[in-house]
Specification:
Elements: E1 4-9, H1 20-24, E2 28-33, E3 48-52, H2 57-70, E4 75-79, H3 87-92, E5 97-99, H4 105-116, E6 121-122, H5 124-136, H6 147-157, H7 162-169, H8 173-187, H9 192-201
Parallel strand pairs: 1-2, 1-3, 3-4, 4-5, 5-6
């Protein structure tokens, strides 16, 4: 069994709790790296990087770009514990593994090997969510929304701020605000809580609290 080198960006980029010794039994060597503003991190020897998706999106995307520039063959997986809002953005950035939770060491090692071999891995809940959004956007009542309005709707339901949505969709905050107004009018919703509940009822977010 060949050894795979897994990089965990250290605190400041991600805080991911797992037991390195358990992964090492499965042939996965865990390496943590402290960010140093004066010296670039050496990623050249890494096979795969596990990133905490709850950390700042732009920091994570910058980290991915930095690693890809140094080690183009490196693979990436992201842990999305609390929100799947940026799932598509991460995949567009080259991430091929999306986890909703950390499985046990044996299962995680299996997933890591699959990704390193060039395969995609999407947690079942995330895969179902992404598929559901593609289907629902073409059906009532969402057929009344434009494609952009639907994207904004999903991100609003995930709890993203207007500025975060603007950055992710590469549009202005004013455009996001206008979309929000149209969404409320077209779907007869009054506030963010209504949007969240409506999205949850239609299976468009992963949220067990509503």
């Amino acid at each position: 069994m060949s050894v795979i080198r897994l990089l965990l960006p250290a605190q400041g980029f991600a805080e991911i709790s797992l037991k390195p010794e358990e992964l090492e039994k499965q042939g996965i060597v865990v390496i943590t790296t402290e960010p140093n503003p004066t010296e670039p991190m050496n990623f050249a020897a890494m096979d795969i990087v596990l990133i905490d998706g709850d950390a700042a999106l732009q920091d994570n995307l910058a980290l991915i770009d930095q690693i890809k520039a140094i080690a183009p063959s490196s693979k990436f997986m992201v842990l999305l514990r609390h929100s799947s809002a940026h799932a598509v953005t991460y995949m567009q950035a080259g991430v091929t593994g999306l986890l909703a939770a950390l499985p046990d060491a044996v299962k995680l090692a299996e997933i890591i090997r699959k990704i390193v071999q060039g395969h995609y891995y999407l947690d079942q809940d995330i895969a179902q969510l992404l598929a559901m959004r593609q289907i629902k956007k073409q059906l009532d009542p969402f057929i009344s929304l434009s494609s952009r309005e639907f994207d904004v709707f999903c991100l609003l339901a995930e709890g993203c701020s207007l500025q975060t949505i603007a950055t992710q969709l590469a549009i202005s905050s004013k455009t996001v605000s206008n979309c929000q107004t149209q969404i409320k009018l077209k779907l007869a919703l009054e506030n963010r809580e209504d949007i969240k509940k409506f999205a949850n009822c239609h299976g468009l977010i992963i949220d067990n609290s509503v």
